[in-house]
């Protein structure tokens, strides 16, 4: 019984440290499902990582990824380039979040003359 609060703490905070997330949005063209993974995982401050997106439900023209450290308003030192590696798979290699703490990774999807914006919180 003494360890139950500790187990609850891990149950609440462990999912927040995962290096994968999914988001769905409803719009006139159906549902878009977007999920990211990182290699290595979890992301560490000042250690480069690959950021891979899996996107279902739409044929994309372009994807742009940025990130900001909300507490300091610091942005990435170098803007990552997303490459389309296969149908529904996009990757940016050697991304670098150079400060510890909370970050927001923003993903903009461009298709059919539209733009959709997604934000994923990341904790280093």
The quaternary organization reads as single chain
Placed side by side, the strands forming the largest sheet appear as 1-2-3-7-6
* Cα-to-Cα separation, first versus last residue: 31 Å
CATH architecture: Sandwich
CATH superfamily: Macroglobulin (MG2) domain
Report the helical percentage: under 10%
Cα-atom Rg, whole angstroms?
Answer: 16 Å
- The helix/strand series, from N terminus to C terminus, equals HEEEEEEEEE
Total domain units: 1
Low-confidence stretches: 1-19
Number of DSSP E strands: 9
Shape summary = globular
The CATH class: Mainly Beta
Instruction: Outline the biggest β-sheet.
Output: 5 strands, antiparallel
Please tell me the overall pLDDT. Answer: 82
Residues in β-strands, percent: over 45%
Structural class: mainly beta
CATH topology value: Immunoglobulin-like
Determine the number of helices (DSSP H or I, runs of at least 4 residues): 1
Structure description:
This protein has one domain (19-123): Macroglobulin (MG2) domain (Immunoglobulin-like, Sandwich). It is built from one helix and nine strands; from the N terminus they run H-E-E-E-E-E-E-E-E-E. The protein has one helix spanning 4-13, and strands spanning 20-27, 30-39, 49-56, 62-69, 74-75, 83-86, 89-95, 102-111, 114-123. The chain has a five-stranded antiparallel sheet, with no helix packed on it. A four-stranded antiparallel sheet has the order 5-4-8-9, with no helix packed on it. The chain starts with a helix and ends with a strand.
């Amino acid at each position: 019984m003494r360890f139950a609060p500790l187990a609850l703490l891990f149950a609440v905070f462990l999912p927040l440290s995962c290096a994968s997330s999914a988001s769905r949005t409803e719009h006139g063209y159906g549902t878009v499902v977007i999920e990211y993974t990182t290699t290595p995982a979890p992301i560490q401050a000042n250690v480069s990582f690959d950021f891979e997106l899996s996107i279902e439900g739409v044929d994309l023209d372009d994807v742009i990824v940025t990130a900001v450290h909300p507490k300091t308003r610091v942005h990435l030192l170098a803007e990552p380039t997303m490459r389309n590696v296969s149908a529904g798979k996009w990757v940016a290699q050697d991304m670098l979040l150079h400060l510890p703490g909370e970050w927001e990774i923003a993903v903009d999807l461009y298709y059919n003359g539209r733009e959709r914006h997604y934000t994923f919180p990341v904790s280093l």
